[in-house]
User: What shape does this take?
Amino acid sequence: MQHNKSLYPPLLVRIGSVWFRHMRVYSKNLISNGLPPFLEPLIFLAGIGLGLGLDLGSIYGIPYPLFLAGGLFMTASMFTAAFECSFGTFIRLEFDKVYDGMLAAPVSANNVLIGEILWAGSKGFFFTFCVLIVMSGALLLLSVENMFSSLFIVFIPLLGFINGVMFGAFSLLITSFVKNINHFNFYFTGFLSPMFFFSGVVFPVHNLPPVLKELAEIFPLTHTVRISRVLCLHGLRGKYPGMDAAYLLRPELLLDALYLIVFVVVISYLAITRLKKRLID
Amino acid sequence: MDMDTKIVVHVKHAYKTYDSLKAVDDLSFSVPQGQCFAFLGPNGAGKTTMMKMLYAKAERDRHPDTVVKVFGYDPVHDELAIKNVAGVVPQEDNLDVELNVVQNLKIFSKFYHMPSRYAEKRINELLDFMELSEKKKAPIRELSGGMKRRLIIARALLNEPKLLILDEPTTGLDPQVRQLIWDKIRSLQKNKVTVLLTTHYMEEAYQLAANILIIDKGKKVLEGNPQGLLEEYIESHVLEVLDKEKFTALPESLAKKVRREESGERILFYSEDPKVIHTIADKLAKGSFYIRETNLEDLFLKITGRKLHATQ
Assistant: This one.
């Protein structure tokens, strides 16, 4: 006898089981897998934030390490999601044939790819959360700032999730074009690395020359970093009277939120449609 | 076949084109419940593609005459309902190498929405059935090819499928494992499980299948039960002359009575009459020839030709 009477498992179970598979395989080597996304932002904060930041003093009314931290939460999430849905997806697709196995079970190609994107988002959530806790702790110990005093930071991991979904979907779209795994170098060095420097992570976007400033608005990272920084700093506004108004909650941020929604919907749709053709013969 | 027998797989005029390659070209067949049905064909004949079309892993060409039904469901619209009751063993191993044997099965039990306790019980049963119980905690990379194959079969059996799709289940395995897998397939059939099989081992088709479909370049060549096909399409005996350079021509009277084929260094003489075969052999040096009954392989080579295609 079949144990389930319905024709096949419900949608959430199907997507959830794809997610579960990734979680189970990833967490098998959590320490080695998790080291780069966790440690890299901390090294960057220590090297640039503390090293350079001490000379820099404050930037728009706030200590530089604090400014930098607000951006690094999102880059942690970006890199982990991007690796997962580029190299990770490609290896599952072409070398390990993981999807062939999944697609033999009652799961559709759409379910598989949505599970993939949500998994990237979950990794974004997880690493944003870890980096947030450790960075806030470090900033507290160094008596730069007690970020825990601001309630808004609880939303940062959630933003890390959305950022992960965004870069997961985008990386899937890139993967749908890639036939040779080495071509991901173009994506990482040609796109993600420049974005890291031109999306307001390391210095404010409005310091860029006009053309680059416009370009920065196209980058998805710019928008999550902007929101992330506000979530970091809005609760601390009392302490820094000279703080730039750009770091406070304001209605314009809805435009950034709108960008995220549109980006996620459109890019996910394109990525799934294109990659499905490689899952199904 | 009696009229009450349920048809599990029903395919009429199926087509599949990849760019300019016709992988499946007007295939029709049907498989009644509990039968083992085998696709035979050289590499690239379209066997795997046909199987994949049944569970929507491959999308068939849109063609007005095409009908594909599995348990009455069309894979284009109801792939999930089909996959819930069909177990698939793909050609390539795709286990999660980071995990161990039980963990691999556990992950798959989630896909079928099995309650945890039930899944554990089922997994133990299946490991027992496939004789893998001792390897329960073994990491996949420590398993032999045969063990991996058995584990993939166990995985396909998790949800107690009514249809088992096996794509070259024993390719590359040693004789012991092959025999074991054959036995398991036979015992599943006793429980009314319908089995679809692709293989290029004639022996495998002969051992397991009630019906075989020989396909070549996507087209149906022959269909029937193995014994029937042998009787109908090929002589019963063959003499293999192992070195054709040492062979002098046959007298006219004998040459008329045999069918001659050449293959590389060998000459093969086929005949219904073993006496004719032996008459020829009597003139040959000991050890330079080999007499045997014909098998599916001879039939297969006769039908699909001895030369390799570009896709092989």
